Amino acid sequence: MRCVILSGGSAGGLDWLAGVIRRGDRVICVDRGADYAAKLGLLPDLIIGDMDSLDSQTLLDFSRRGAEIKTFPAEKDETDTTLALAEALAGQPDEVVILGALGTRFDHSLANVHLLRLAGDKGVPAKIINQFNEISLVTPGEPAILKGLPGETFSLLPLTAEVTGVNVTGARWPLRDAVFSIGNPYGISNEVAADRVEISITSGLLLLIKINERGEMNCR
Fold this sequence. Notes:
Elements: E1 2-6, H1 14-20, E2 26-30, H2 33-40, E3 46-49, H3 56-64, E4 68-71, H4 80-90, E5 95-99, H5 106-121, E6 126-129, E7 133-138, E8 144-147, E9 153-158, E10 162-169, E11 175-181, E12 190-191, E13 196-200, E14 206-211
Parallel strand pairs: 1-2, 1-5, 2-3, 3-4, 5-6
Antiparallel strand pairs: 6-7, 7-14, 8-13, 9-12, 9-14, 10-11, 10-13
Helix pairs in contact: 4-5
């Protein structure tokens, strides 16, 4: 089972969103993310958050149609998307896809990227996607596989102070037993050289960002 979290940031065009969400996905809306669901004609499984940016009539309509509602106070330690991810992980999904997690609030965008570790600690693959970027986490153990076309761009950035044993094959600039450190972002703008890039690390946490400047990113 795949769980899609629809948060309230910039979510791209409705046609793009409709192409990403699959039939059978469990859909969790974060506060204003329910507005996107309404425009797409989707009935969320759960709407969660402090509801400070969601139209009350939209919330009432979804409640009457059977969507589960979990409301939290505005003053709390967790962000609404953190609460949504905790709910998603409690359902033991095979994968979590987070949409609407990036936008004009850089603090919220960065906080959402950090949430990938929460999923990684539970052993659940998770990614943040918008029309231009797909962000996932590489952890020690099983290599991460990036599929793409030759010439497509991807970047690697450390999420921990240091990442050791970085190996990259299938890329224009391969790496062997490299070390990445915060403050030295030399993993920017590598390129796919084959139909499959393999990335592995020995220790730390590494962000993998696949880029599509044409705005056609999807996760099908």
